[in-house]
Prior knowledge:
- By secondary structure, this protein is α/β, with parallel strands linked by helices.
- It has one domain: Amidase signature (AS) domain (Amidase signature (AS) enzymes, Alpha-Beta Complex), CATH 3.90.1300.
- The chain has 15 helices and 11 strands.
- An 11-stranded mixed sheet has the order 1-3-2-4-6-5-10-11-9-7-8, with helices on both faces.
- Mean pLDDT is 92; it is low at 60-67 and 453-459.
Amino acid sequence: MIKTTLGLVEAAQGIDSGLIAAEDYLSECVTRADALEPTLRAFTVRATLEQMISETKSGPLMGIPLTGIPLKGIPVAVKDIMATEDFITSYGSPIYRDYIPKEDASVIKKIRALGGVVFGKTVTTEFAWRNPGPTTNPWNSLHTPGGSSSGSAAAVAAGIVPLALGSQTVGSIIRPAAFCGVVGFKPSFGAVSLDGVHPVAHSLDHLGFFTRSVQDAAYAFHLLKDDDDHQGQSIAQPYISPNRTMQSQHLDDQAPRIAILETPFDDQLSKEQYDLLGTTSTLLRAAGATLEKLTLPQTYWDGIDALHIMMAYEAAMVHEEHLRNYPDLVGADIRELVTKGKGYTDSEYAATQNLQQALRLSIEEIFNQYDVILSAPATGEAPKGLSNTGNPIFCALWSFIGTPAITLPISRSLNGLPLGIQLIGNYRGDEKLLQVAAFAEAALKNDMQQNSYSTQTGY
């Protein structure tokens, strides 16, 4: 019997080498989903086993220079704001309950070309903004999985798929990953194509990944990152062979320099989350890292207010037609966001754009001194109840600036819910961030293994 809790790299290696039959692996993933979905409710629609097996036997590699088929037979869960030509793409809205796009989003085309299959579409909040869906937390179904990438985080945490796609405008990858106890990686703004992804706010939206390890996140990133800069604000990332991440991420000879961020919101941290940051710092120092405390000028924290202005202003344009044509089908949270956006002037919006660019440039000075910044990913454990997805305050600044961020699951609360840390890198410094995250993962390995979902009987 194959363990569905295999990591992405482990499963890809097994299938590519012939040690694991793709059909058997997919069958076990379907069986696990069948058993868990009545409570987990992570998916809006799923492929049949027959559909996925058929797909693994077809599909060119689009000329990508790789040996083997790097995602052959790998089931990928896709957040339901990303276009899929063979699945309903509802964007979490009743307006699109029967909508099937004419073609896949760019990232889905890449997944299929590399041998991967779409396992299903995962639950998102309405248009990826606030109004929660039915997904529950894999560790305790009475608690939120976070959002807006609710279903994607839960599907990976529950051992259904080794890779899921999510998006983040404020905190929608980092926070649900922390709440569900998986690795969540938000690459630099523009590093992964958003072509075919429904926008929240085009100046803030990021596409990223949920996996079970840093190595898996790096593998997915190296395969699916953008390789040209022809689309809008996309940035081309240099080619790095994913075969390298089959082994590990390697740091330069010197030990990582880590800044421990002090924020104006630290009083909102639970005692458990605050203590975890302290314990993590101690373990990283013991592993050879250099750690120093860091405070940022108020201008940076002004960026969070600017983010909300920018997001509302752009969302008002995105949803203008929805409100005009389907007023009864738009939820209260979207209405509120649009109302706020219409209240801002063009000059106020322009000021947010100027601040965003200024901070993106000035943050480089900090990363001349440090490799990464260490912070909390959320205020603490996943809140009880499914009516809200938690506070994204510890993610917002990095979404505004567009710097890459990753969360690692480290421990569990007294209630048995995951707790993690967040590491932030320089804009376009995704590779360095992944290297330091791999270092941290190794340094914290014992704690992480003892608290990983795969060791629990749970679901």
